[in-house]
Every structure is written in C-alpha cells, then in structure tokens.
Please model this.
Amino acid sequence: MITITCDICKKKMDNPITDKTFFYYANFSMCEDCKDKIEYSVKPQVRAKEPFAMDWYQKTMRDTLGRAAQRSRA
Ligand SMILES: [Zn+2]
Model:
C-alpha cells in the first residue's frame, strides 16, 4: 500500500490516485480538499491578472502553496 501525506494539511492518503484523489504541483503533494482551497484562493488573482502569463501563474501557485504549507506547520 502506498501512503502519501498532504503537504498542506498533513492528512495521510492511502493508495492515492494522481489527479483524482491526490494532486502534485511545484513539488507539493496535496489532497483534493487542499487543491480546491488553493485554486479558490488563487482564482481571484488569476481573474484580475491582465494579460495572463503562465510564468506568473506558476509563481503565484508556488507562493500560495508555500504559504499554505508553512501555515499548517506552525
Ligand atoms: Zn490536504
């Protein structure tokens, strides 16, 4: 059995299915709940960003994930 720990909420996931129950982005592993939360918090920034730039998006996702991971560690 494979167990992966969510980097954001530290929840353990047994037998994770990539892109279904478990998501991987910018060296962060995350569960579906956390992926939804991260996307939700990034979405307004993405909408406001004009013109949209992929490297900006990737950096924003990394920063948001890093902050979220730090918060749960404290
Ligand atoms: Zn999580």
